[in-house]
Design a protein that fits this description.
By secondary structure, the chain is α+β, with helices and mostly antiparallel strands. It has a single domain, classed as Sortase (Sortase, Chain: A), CATH 2.40.260.10. The protein is 29% helix and 23% strand. It contains 5 helices and 8 strands; from the N terminus they run ααββββααββαββ. β5 and β6 form a beta hairpin. About 12% of the residues have low confidence.
């Protein structure tokens, strides 16, 4: 019996050590991800001193002053990662990241913007969506990181029962070298990872059916969904929710303005 307890104690120690090593590894992954995007942010800010850098800011007359005052050098971003297609900014949550796209959505699940293996992955555009965000429903995916990075802050919408957070700033912005797109959040909800909400929408009939389903699922009730029609491009943000890995939290927004920046470089 004493031998039995000794074996149990030894196993418990190994399990504890394994957990500690796992936690240490996760913390290291978090730190590497934070450091990478901190460095990337510094690189972007440095472009302010480059007179020839293509800028997106209020200094360009074609962009309204109430837009986020981001200064992005897409040539530099593309040199760092050729898969760069956009930059996303979620106003209420101060979520601000580059967006990549490849032919395989699996690639950036555990690959950082800099190309390193990392559990935080990267924010990425669905491989089947148009890179200029003209698909009827465009999907962007990101991990729900516990430290709030990537799409880890999206759950704040779900946790805010009064919807005050979303109402205060219901805007999502997509920046590209040629254009900037403003979206208004109209819905958010939880679904299973196998949900039909991820289906393609290509016709007016499919669009109407899709909006009917969104209306039923939505936890956000402060937007009149009857305003939506097949001419309204949708942006869908998706991240995991819970510990089982079987649920997803969805935030959806509708395009309200698209500004062409061609010829606007400083």
């Amino acid at each position: 019996m004493k031998k039995y307890y000794k074996v149990i104690n030894v196993l418990a120690i190994f399990v504890m050590l394994g957990c500690l090593l796992r936690i240490g590894w996760l913390m290291d992954q978090y730190e590497k991800s934070l450091q990478e995007y901190s460095t990337l942010q510094d690189t972007i800010e440095e472009t302010e001193t480059l007179e020839t850098a293509p800028l997106i800011s209020a200094e360009i007359p074609s962009i309204p002053e109430n837009y986020p005052q981001l200064r992005l050098d897409f040539d530099s971003l593309s040199s760092l990662n050729p898969d760069t297609v956009a930059w996303i900014y979620v106003d209420a949550l101060d979520v601000s990241y580059p967006v990549v796209q490849t032919v395989d959505d699996e690639i950036y699940l555990h690959k950082s913007f800099g190309g390193e293996e990392n559990i935080a992955g990267c924010i990425f555009l669905d491989a089947y969506n148009n890179p200029d965000f003209t698909s009827m429903n465009t999907f962007i995916f990101g991990h729900n990181m516990r430290n709030g990075t990537m799409f880890g802050k999206l759950k704040n919408f779900y946790q805010d029962e009064t919807a005050e957070l979303c109402n205060s700033a219901p805007w999502i912005y997509i920046f590209q070298k040629e254009q900037v797109i403003k979206y208004q959040i109209f819905s958010y909800y939880l679904v299973q990872n196998t949900s039909d909400i991820y289906r393609d929408v290509n016709t007016e009939e499919e669009y109407d059916e899709y909006i009917e389903e969104v209306t039923r699922l939505s936890l956000y009730k402060d937007y009149d969904l009857e305003q939506l029609n097949a001419a309204s491009h949708i942006l869908t943000l998706s991240t995991c929710s819970g510990t089982s890995g079987s649920k997803r939290f969805i935030v959806q927004a509708v395009e309200v303005e698209r500004i062409n920046l061609v010829g606007s470089d400083s």
